[in-house]
């Protein structure tokens, strides 16, 4: 009887040890699967930037035979520092019109004029931003992702982006930080009072 009891106990110990080893091995395999390579993040981020239409506002364009075409070497660098706006009729804006310039990087509306930001890896873009700043800008609409900064202006759709998950935000950030740096200090926004004051003269 004692011999049978010892054999059963020994088998139980071996079984527990085998199960522990299997569980431990499975845990290691799972943890390695959740590690995403930088290349994968960049690829995912590039896909998101393209499908979320970031180029529509943030990439300078030239007019081609089929309309605006992205200037590859300026991609995602925002409204050019030397942007010249066409003459604006404040009466049209007062009637409810919102107007884009010809390459969609500048927009005038009841709030004034906003200029699309530089999203490249240059210091004049997001080159010095932390991932936390980027997340705050994208999901809370904070200029440069800083707590005490002004809000982002239309047409930046940050309320829609606020539901992005952390993995996608990380992918977008990683991709943008991998882009070629384009030096471009985007013009400061023009407040409504200044815009309408200038155009009334």
Kindly provide the radius of gyration, computed on alpha-carbon positions and rounded to a whole number of angstroms.
Answer: 27 Å
Sketch the topology as an H/E string, one letter per element: HHHEEHEEEHHHEH
Let me know the average pLDDT.
86
| Total E-strand runs | 6
- Backbone shape: globular
Share in β-strands: 5-15%
Which structural class best describes the helix and strand composition?
alpha+beta
Domain count, please report it. 1
Write the layout of secondary structure elements.
Blueprint: H1 2-34, H2 38-51, H3 54-58, E1 61-64, E2 67-70, H4 90-94, E3 99-100, E4 106-109, E5 112-115, H5 131-140, H6 158-161, H7 166-178, E6 190-191, H8 192-200
Antiparallel strand pairs: 1-2, 3-4, 4-5, 5-6
Helix pairs in contact: 2-7, 5-7
Please explain how this structure is put together.
This protein has 201 residues and is α+β, with helices and mostly antiparallel strands. The protein has one domain. It contains 8 helices and 6 strands. The protein has a 4-stranded antiparallel beta sheet with strand order 3-4-5-6, covered by helices on one side. It has a two-stranded antiparallel sheet with strand order 1-2. A hairpin with a 2-residue loop joins strand 1 and strand 2. Helix 2 packs across helix 7 and helix 5 packs across helix 7. The longest helix is centred in the first third of the chain and has 33 residues. The relative contact order is 0.15. About 5% of the residues have low confidence.
């Amino acid at each position: 009887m004692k011999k049978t009891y010892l054999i059963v106990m020994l088998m139980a110990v071996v079984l527990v040890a085998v199960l522990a080893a299997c569980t431990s091995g499975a845990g290691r395999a799972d943890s390695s699967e959740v590690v995403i390579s930088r290349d994968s993040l960049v690829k995912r981020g590039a896909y998101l930037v393209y499908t979320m239409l970031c180029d529509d506002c943030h990439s300078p364009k030239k007019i081609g035979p089929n309309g605006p075409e992205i200037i590859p070497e300026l991609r995602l660098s925002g409204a050019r520092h030397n942007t010249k706006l066409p003459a604006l009729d404040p009466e049209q804006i007062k009637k409810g019109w919102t107007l884009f310039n010809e390459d969609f990087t500048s927009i005038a509306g009841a709030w004034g004029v906003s200029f699309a930001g530089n999203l490249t890896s240059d210091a004049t873009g997001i080159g010095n931003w932390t991932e936390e700043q980027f997340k705050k800008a994208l999901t809370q609409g904070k200029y440069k992702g800083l707590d005490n900064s002004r809000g982002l202006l239309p047409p930046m759709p940050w309320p829609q982006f606020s539901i992005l998950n952390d993995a996608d935000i990380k992918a977008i950030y990683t991709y943008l930080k991998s882009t070629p740096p384009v030096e471009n200090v985007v013009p400061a926004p023009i407040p409504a009072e200044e815009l309408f004051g200038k155009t009334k003269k």
